Amino acid sequence: MSTGDELRAAVGARRDLGPDFEDAIVESFLDKMGQEVDRRVDERLAAADPKGKKLAKQQQQRPADGQRLALAIVSMALGTLLTLAVIMGQKEMWVIAPIWFAIIVVNGIFSGNGKG
To answer: CA 20 to CA 110: how far, in whole Å?
Structure first.
């Protein structure tokens, strides 16, 4: 069914069912239009690059720059707090190295997923 046909059907349903069902009709129409837009984008990606669909999926699975930055900031803050806690408690200083090593590994793995 074309976009015009969908719109005519939605308007016809609105006339038949009345204003009580207007929200449901509009929501259904917008959902169908969203699916149509997605289908067309997928077709264009596939036409432009035979691997387009695969590329689009890979991009969705990559962590965004903002996510990597947030992880780095949280890691630095957490590492600093844990280091201060160990120093202030004057207990087992050897714990500091594994804490920072774990932070570096986690950030490295997460950032490595974003390359490509």
So the answer is: 49
b vs e for 20-33, b when ≥16 Cβ sit within 10 Å of the residue's Cβ?
Answer: eeeeebeeebeebe
Distance (Å, whole) CA 65 – CA 14: 44
Residues 6+ apart with CB under 8 A from 93: 86, 87
Per-residue model confidence as pLDDT tens digits over 18-62: 778 777 877 787 777 777 777 778 888 877 766 655 555 555 566
This prediction has a pTM of 0.41
User: Could you tell me how many residues make up the chain?
Assistant: 116
Angle between helices 3-17 and 22-48 (to 10 degrees): 170
Q: Which residue has the tokens 């699975």?
A: 61
Rounded to an integer, what distance in angstroms lies between the CA atom of residue 94 and that of residue 86? Answer: 9
Phi first, then psi, for residue 48 (nearest 5°) are -75, -35
